[in-house]
Amino acid sequence: MASSQCEGEAKAHGSVKQHFYSPGLLQSVHLLSAVTVVFGVWILPALFGFHLITHPLQTIRCTVGITLPVVLLAYSPLQLRKRTCSVWWVIGHAFLSVPIGAMAVAFLAIACGAPIAVEYASRTLHWSIFMSILLVLPAAMVLGTSWPDWHRIFALTRPKRDVEFLICIPAHGAAIGAWLGAWVMPLDWDRLWQDWPISCTYGAVGGYLSGLFVSSILTYFQSTFDWLKAE
């Protein structure tokens, strides 16, 4: 029953109804997202004796392994279709958004100059999955297939409510950070961190964490106002 209702709602392609979330819940998602990325990029690889500069593939693989399940669980309470869709239906469909987003990220990365040599294929694949988790997965969990909201948040950059700040700002931060990180790759400094996709990963993580910080401030005031107003 829940599945058929979700499918019917998805076919309508309408905007989702507004829900109010407690400031504590939203700040917890911010904190958990930041801690998970930091743990995946720096702490977990260090426990195994490697880091991003010397072992980029292994590091990104560890980061994907820890961020994917945490993001799925952290954003599940924020789904805007929870009245008509079960949590597992939302998680399953959001999980499918990761490879779709990864293909789009990989295409854009190659179009912007990422190496296409065979030895870089695995790096590009894992990096694209990691970026898809940061950019696409949170929105898929919260918005589902509400294409008007996707277009408004990502194409027009017009978030309206607290949870949309949480989706929009970190995602844009990660994309901009990855783009800025790519600028140092062609420079003739002969540094290990200039190799693909090390600098882009550092840039994406820096932009993502900065976006989370800005988003946490905006969502705190917006969610507090909405929460008090709803009561």
Verbal overview:
This protein has 231 residues and is mainly alpha-helical. Helix content is 72%, strand content 0%. It contains nine helices and no strands. It is globular.
Summary tags:
globular, 231 residues
The quaternary structure here is single chain
What's the tally of helices? 9
Percent helix among the residues? over 70%
* Count of discrete domains: 1
General form? globular
Radius of gyration: 18 Å
What distance separates the N and C termini?
32 Å
What series of H and E elements makes up the topology? HHHHHHHHH
Output mean pLDDT: 88
Strand content: under 5%
Structural class determined from secondary elements: mainly alpha
State the major sheet: none
Count of extended strands: 0
Low-confidence stretches: 1-5, 7-13
Short note summarizing the structure:
72% of the residues lie in helices and 0% in strands.
How would the blueprint of this fold be written?
Blueprint: H1 2-12, H2 23-47, H3 56-75, H4 87-111, H5 121-135, H6 137-143, H7 147-155, H8 162-182, H9 198-230
Helix pairs in contact: 2-3, 2-9, 3-5, 4-5, 4-6, 8-9
